[in-house]
Every structure is written in structure tokens, then in C-alpha cells.
Amino acid sequence: MILDRWVSQEVRGLYRIDAAQHILSGLFYGMTIVLLPVVARRAGASSFQTVLIGSSFGLGCLLANLWARRSMRGRRMRFILTVRATGRLLLLGLLLTDDMWWFCGVICVVEIFEIATQPAQLDIQKTIFPHGMFGRVIAFLMMEFHLALSVGAVLGGYLIEYPIPGMSAPLGFSVVLMIGSVFGLLSVYVYSRLPFPDDLPLIPVPESSTQKKGRWLTENPLFRHGLVLHLWFGTANLLAMGLYYLYLVDRAGGTESSAGYLMALFTLSTALFSFLWAKWADRIHVLRMLTLVIVACIATTGAFFLASSPWELIPAYLLWGVVNAGSIVVPVKLTSLCAGPGEVQRYWSIFLVWLGFRTVAAPLVAAEVYRRMGRFDFIFLFSVVVMMGALIYNERVLRRPEFHKVVEGDGSV
Length: 413
What we know:
By secondary structure, the chain is mainly alpha-helical.
């Protein structure tokens, strides 16, 4: 709603509804999901449990293809509303016990439900928003989401640690969790107001396209390269990222309030650079944008490595926002370029599954190495070296003539 003036008049009403649900979802995430790893660590979670909570997003991604097939057989809007509301209600299960394994299990289940709706939501957005401004609209929505998330993170961290005026004690995690869940359920209600024809049939995909097992790897070199490159540099980045929350608490001495402020900076940076990535999306080759993301990943890891207090981590969290914004806009742009009619859910679920493998495995490997060695520097330096290799590889691929021109939405390069 903040950026609707940059959206064309014919879809402005649809954008406002989608933006409103993104803002409410941002408040929900900011007051709950992003603070959970720090809350758990300070409550006595082990390094493995803390990293498992932080990487639980990946568990949902592993099942994305299954969920995409399910949503394509039924009504997409009803599927999104039912699954998302169920997941956000399940988050209240954290209030039942203080056991850390229960804590981890509930969060993993909630993340599975959250990710389940992404392919269907992207398919709806691809349907209602024009091709020429699709990447820009997605970036604007992400910007509004992260602005709200930054407010939620600061508010949630403050209410957990400090009393509000007139009260002798802080509200604590339980009350903040319930408030955040209310915002999450409100976002589901607002999204139900989107006038999307739920019985709109999907365009049938020819048998010779991505329905054939493995054909998407050979028929679309741009998508194939994007997946390989994401697996390469993304795994290295996640090895380092898996230790960021541990680094904040163990090395930098962070608390819930400092984590809230840093996450607010991170989300503000994500919001700002979502706007910039959106402006670049239609002007810069998608692989060149990947180069910029890799450079930002390397700089982020270096900034974490050099910091020793929460406030010295400010540059790292700002750079992390640059990475996060690019990691959202670039894959969406890649999917938009490569997916033909009716293929959006399938392409996006393929990307999410690949993302899920490395999001689960890499942080847990990093946590185990840290547990055995007690050092952050080895993982950080190793990650930087691997990402530099991916950077060099991508620059070489960009010189190939077959990647010089891409055509949006026809599944070809």
C-alpha cells in the first residue's frame, strides 16, 4: 500500500489487498519467527537445536513439490487459506511446554505449512499481475513485508525484554507470541478478500515440457545454470549463515532486544534493496544480478567475521539485507523468464526443493563443526573461498552467447 502509486491503475486494487496481507504477515513474522532462534538459545537450546530452528525453513522447502502438485489439483486460494491458517494456529503449541525438542518440532511443522503455500501464491500472482511488471510487483510486496517485519522484530524484542510504561514486568515471550499470531491470522483473512477466481483452470502443460522427469534440466539451460549456481554459492553461504545466530549470542553477547534491533536493520535493508532490485530486474541480466548477490554474500560473511559486539554487527546485518532481497527477487525473475504458461508452480517448487536440501544440510553441518572445533573462523573462511569460486564460474558463463538474450514467459532462452 505504501508503493501502490508505482503500480498500474488496472491492478492497483489487487495490489493493495496483497500488500495488506504481506504487511500483516510481516508483523507476524517479526514478532514470532525471526526471534525464535535467539529466544531458544537464551532459554538453553543447544547449538544443534538453535541451528535446526534457524534452518527449519528448509524442511518446508523439501516438500514444496508435493504441495505444488496438491494445490494444482484443487482450488489454489482455498488451499492457501486453509494451510496457512492451520500453521499459524499450530505456532501457539509453543506455549504448551518448555521442552526444547518440542519447541523445535512445532517450529519445523509451522515452517512446512508456511512454505506449502508459496508455489500456489506465486502462481496466483503470476496470473493477476501483468508480465511486464511481475518482477517489480513481487519486489514491492517484499519491500512492504520487510518494512512491517522490521517493526514487528523491534516491537517483539522490546516487549519480551522490557516492561511497557505502567507495568512492572515485561510481557514476555508467551504474550508476544499470541499477539503475533493474531496478526498472522488477520493476514489470512485479508488475503481471502482477494477477488481471484478460485475455479480458474490451469493451462495444461504439454507432455514434452517439464512433466517429463529430468527434462527441465536439459531443455532450459538458463534455469539449469541458475539452479547449479544457487546450489554452489548458496550452500557455502548457508554454512556461514547457519552460525549467524550462534555468533550473535555466543561471541557478540546479543539479547532479545539487540536481536530485535539488528533484525529491524536487516529487514529495513531488505526492504530498501527490494525496491532497488526491482528497478534493476528489468534492466540487468538475471545472471548479472546473481553476480551481485554473490558479492554481497561474501561481504556479509566478512563483516560477521570481523565483529565482536552486537553494534559491530550493524554492517553485517545491513549487507545481509542486500543478500536477502536479491535472493528473493532473482529466483522469482528466473522462474518468470523460464516458466511457460501453467508451469510457474512446477518451476518454483523445483527451486524450493533444491533450496530445502542445502538449507537443512549446510547449517547443521556448520553447527556440528562448531560444536567440535569451537571456532567460527574456519567455516566463515571456507564459505568465502567457495563463493568466490562460484563468482568466477558465473562470470565465465555470462560470456556464452546463448545466455545473452532471454525471452520472458515462454520457457525458452
